[in-house]
Design brief:
Elements (H helix, E strand, L loop, with lengths): L2 H24 L14 H6 L9 H4 L3 H8 L8 H5 L18 H9 L14 H5 L16
Bound molecules: heme C (4 copies).
């Protein structure tokens, strides 16, 4: 066999050995337990604490606002959509932010856009708002008021 072919075979064989050893060493022990994924990742992900606490969690302390919001048109827009993630409130974060720039917040959903569904009321902001904050006229918790 010519020398250069022999070298090539030795090289390929060498790489194969490295690959097999590497796979043995680097594959997590739980990898094939249930299938082609790392079984340990499932309890790891399940143990994470969600940053969003849901609107129901606000009810006990902000009862009055919750009652009004839960029957109003914004009931599909959860509290944390506007006030940010509530993990740690009120224990660590005494107060959740109150959105100061309502124009920025409200136009996220209400700026007239082609392709936005008609079920989502839309306004042409420059014409509708005339530079005022939306909450000057609209109650963010009960927008139909
Ligand atoms: C265990 C009780 C509790 C829960 C649950 C709770 N809050 Fe609060 N929240 C408070 C207290 C107490 C304050 C401080 C009130 C104050 O100083 O006027 C506060 C303040 C706030 C403020 C700021 C009000 C202001 O005047 O600055 C916002 C916004 C807020 N909470 C939103 C929420 C939202 C949204 C949820 C649910 C995801 C929630 N809170 C859940 C007790 C709670
Ligand atoms: C569509 C956005 C939006 C949603 C949804 C929303 N908020 Fe608010 N919230 C605001 C804005 C904007 C303000 C400030 C109002 C203002 O400046 O007049 C505010 C103010 C507040 C305040 C304190 C200031 C005040 O007016 O007394 C609390 C507390 C609060 N929200 C709690 C909640 C809770 C609890 C929910 C869910 C049940 C909720 N919010 C849902 C936008 C929202
Ligand atoms: C995450 C999306 C979202 C955000 C943010 C949001 N809205 Fe809405 N809003 C909606 C949807 C969806 C509806 C329609 C609900 C329905 O009719 O069932 C609605 C309805 C309304 C309506 C119509 C009420 C009526 O009479 O039919 C007004 C006014 C309104 N929102 C104002 C605001 C204002 C002001 C803000 C900011 C403080 C805001 N919205 C933020 C999604 C949003
Ligand atoms: C000067 C008061 C005022 C301000 C400021 C204002 N609105 Fe309105 N808005 C109204 C009135 C009045 C109506 C109901 C009559 C109409 O449809 O024009 C309305 C209606 C709406 C509707 C419902 C439209 C529909 O088709 O049902 C939406 C959505 C809305 N406003 C969003 C906003 C947003 C977002 C802002 C801030 C960028 C804002 N508004 C600022 C007075 C105001």
């Amino acid at each position: 066999m010519p020398k250069h072919i022999l070298r090539l075979i030795v090289l390929i064989f060498g790489l194969l050995v490295v690959a097999v050893i590497g796979k043995e060493l680097l594959t997590d022990k739980s990898f094939y337990r249930f299938g082609h994924y790392r079984a340990d990742s499932v309890p790891e992900i399940a143990a994470q604490i969600p940053v969003l606490q849901t609107a129901a969690s606000c009810q006990e302390c902000h009862a009055e606002r919750f009652e009004k919001w839960s029957v109003a048109k914004h009931k599909t827009v959860t509290c944390e959509n506007c006030h940010g993630a509530a993990l740690g409130h009120p224990q660590k974060i005494a107060k959740l932010p109150i959105p100061t720039d309502a124009v920025k917040l409200c136009t996220r959903c209400h700026e007239a856009l082609t392709g936005r569904p008609d079920t989502q009321p839309q306004v042409e902001v420059p014409k509708h708002n005339k530079g005022r904050q939306c909450v000057a006229c609209h109650n963010p918790h009960v927008p139909e008021e």
